[in-house]
Design brief:
This protein is of the alpha+beta class. The chain has helices at about 10-20, 90-105, 115-120, 135-145, 165-175, and strands at about 1-5, 35, 45-55, 75-80, 110-115, 125, 155-160. It starts with a strand and ends in a 32-residue tail after the last helix. It has a 4-stranded antiparallel beta sheet, with helices on both faces. A 3-stranded antiparallel beta sheet has the order 5-7-6. About 25% of the residues lie in helices and about 20% in strands.
Length: about 200
């Protein structure tokens, strides 16, 4: 199992799962996402997004990169784990990769607007008052509460304080998709009485 950058061709896959999970797709860009992948089966297990809210134009280096302004804000959002992969450390490692990206981009702090505060607290996130949010995120919190997450609360993390508990690392090492528990379809599911029905290839035996 590993976490990698999302690919452009995965836009539809991401949007389908974001919609199915009722997550936020505001200002969607596939390049902001990472995807957890089971390397043995090639199955996707989850995803998450790092979203930078830009306060100003900022100065760019000769390469064209833009260093964060002091007022820029980094938000982790739209983190989802697919059915069959829950409880295996997938979400923890998606968050870890996003925090690493935030740090690499020059952010010392990240925020989340979530109704899963207890989960994020395990990694060092602290709950804060809405009034303590940066201005760029105060309006965002209102929008999120009115759309996808009515119970959203603001969380904040100093990236140097981030930590993944060992139990999540162990689960992630052994992660594997759980087999479906759906019952096999029977003739009765289609309104067929198997004792009276005849079949195209009935040999009469």
């Amino acid at each position: 199992m590993y976490v990698r950058d999302a690919k452009n061709r995965e836009e539809v896959w991401l949007l389908d799962h974001i919609e199915a999970m009722g997550l936020d797709d505001t200002a969607f860009r596939s390049r902001d996402y990472v995807v957890a992948v089971d390397e043995e089966a090639g199955s996707k297990a989850g995803f998450g997004r790092i979203r930078v809210h830009v306060a100003g134009d900022g100065e760019r280096t000769q390469s064209g990169r833009r260093d964060p302004d002091d007022e820029d804000v980094c938000e982790l959002t739209s983190i989802g784990v697919l059915d069959g992969w829950e409880g295996q450390g997938v979400g923890a490692h998606i968050i870890e990769r996003l925090v690493e990206y935030a740090s690499d981009a020059g952010f010392g702090r990240v925020h989340a607007l979530t109704d899963e505060g207890g989960y994020l607290a395990q990694f060092g996130f602290d709950a804060i008052d809405a009034d303590d949010l940066p201005p760029l995120l105060q309006e965002r919190l209102t929008e999120k509460r009115e759309s996808t997450t009515p119970e959203a609360r603001p969380m904040r993390l100093d990236v140097d304080e981030f930590d993944v508990p060992d139990r999540f690392r162990e689960r992630f090492k052994n992660a594997g998709e759980e087999e479906s528990t759906e019952a096999e379809e029977t003739p009765e599911d289609f309104g067929i009485d198997p004792e009276k029905a005849t079949y195209k290839y009935d040999t009469g035996r």
